[in-house]
Here is the input.
Amino acid sequence: MSPPSRAARLYRALLRLFPGEFRADFGSEMEEVFASERGDARRGGRPALARLWLRTAWDALRVGPAQHLALLRRDGAYALRGLRRRPGFAAAIVATLALGFGVNAAMFGVLDATVLAPLAYRDAERLVVVWERDETGAASNTSWATYRDVAERSRSLASLAAIANGWASLAGGEAPELLFGLRVTHSFFDVFAVRPLVGRGFLAAEDRPAGERVVVLGHGLWRRRFGGDPAVVGRTVELSGRPVRVVGVLPAEFATTFTEALYDEEFDYLVPLRYDAVTESACRTCRHIVAVGRLRPGVTQGAAAAEVESVLAGLAREHPHDYPAAGGVLRPLREQVVAGARPGLLALWAAVGCLLLIATANVASLLLARTAERREELAIRAALGAGRARLFRQLLTESLVLAGAGAAAGVLLAAFVLRAALAAVPFPVPRLEEAALGARVLLFAAGASLLVGLAVTLVPAAHLLWRGLPAVVESGERASAGAARQRLRGVFVTAEV
Here is the structure.
């Protein structure tokens, strides 16, 4: 089929959705254009086809939307009048949909905050974790010696930081306090693109065994133990019996998400790692380091992963007794953070998604019965000139009104469901406290209401409109229609079970 013929068929199909006056005025004019277009196509011409598509789009935007809005207002008013005559029927549908939308909106809020939303770091999509492979080939911690070699040989990583955890007691105050902290290389601040709120980060000279003992306080510890006093920078505090000088304070917005995922703890402080090649804990088989890096601009994660694999394979060839398996693993930090929680959250969302499907099936069954009661009304409207597309649009408008009301009630319910979900999730979930009913959740609820409205319209519309409306008022057709409805309800019940 030629492009003009395909264009004509598509245009005529779309034109049926417009009011009759528009079809009559605009359709004959466009048929002339199509005839001219077919002639141009036979002669190998293309410019007229492009003009046709542009003209069609322009006239649809110029004429169609205003008339469609008028029809939508009229259909919406008619739908509301019909629902007011059946308040119990409308309330049952809205309540059913509100339950389905409510739990799904709440679950999407959890999933959005924990799995879908980017990490709260600058250019977070460029943050990656570099792992070695253990004897089974799985990703595992690396060593300081391996970290140093990867940092020197990689061209894909703009910076790479080594991170290890530790505990320390903070003296002073009413009683000593046990703190969880990180020992990091001075490149930590470059990798996470973070500037201390007060003071500075670590210097390269401080990240050596003989360097000065310094500490950067987490924002929570700074507020809790030092009252948020900026003059704490420069003071000496005692960590595990050793004096250390405070050189900086992290900002409140610096998230500790990655340490919660890696160590199940929120860190209170940072101190320099202070390793070199002769440090006992820096041996090549001392695998207690987590290496977090930042990709160079323009470097893809696939290219960086291939390079890391190659570098680690080369190190295994150079030191065959120190590596149980050749090669390395590079993963996005975001994937590493959510890896443990994603399967459980997706399973929970699948479960509440089934609840929405059950609610949709129940509503479709109710609307099927309701539409069957209106078959004479619809048949009379068809006899008076209403086409199938026009009647379908009326049924769709009524369904969308119900779905929209159900979604609005569901969002209100989701606020309460979300609180319960935050307390009831049976496994640790990073960033769970960030879950909220934000704009993305509202967009999800709106999109789901449109899909549900369309879905619950298709069954009654297909059952009546496509069977031939004038015939459904006949007694024999009524009997067969009743049997068909019973079969459809049986399908719904089976699907719900």
In short: Residues 43-50, 470-481 have pLDDT under 50 and may be disordered. The chain is about 55% helix and 15% strand. The first strand starts at residue 127 and ends at 133.
